[in-house]
Amino acid sequence: xxxxxxxxxxxxxxxxxxxxxxxxxxxxxxxxxxxxxxxxxxxxxxxxxxxxxxxxxxxxxxxxxxxxxxxxxxxxxxxxxxxxxxxxxxxxxxxxxxxxxxxxxxxxxxxxxxx
Length: 115
Description:
Order of helices and strands: EEEEEEEEEEE
Mean pLDDT: 96
Strand content: over 45%
Structural class: mainly beta
Oligomer: single chain
């Protein structure tokens, strides 16, 4: 069983930046980030394959960048131009075969965008 551990959340002002990290205990084909706010379903933010192919939610395109270090089994999410509506708990995800099937979840890290 692969474990995922997120870090890097916190409080930031609108327009600011944060970088999230997620370290996996083993190699995973696809890694990604989802986010969730109270009363809403968890939603996709971005995914990246081991080869570097990426997919983004329309709401974050041009502002967020997902990347990974395969040697470290770590995925990153660079978040720029943050907006209050980006406030959520961000979860790291791991996918063994396809992005539509999520095999592993991290515990989540809170991101709050507020003045």
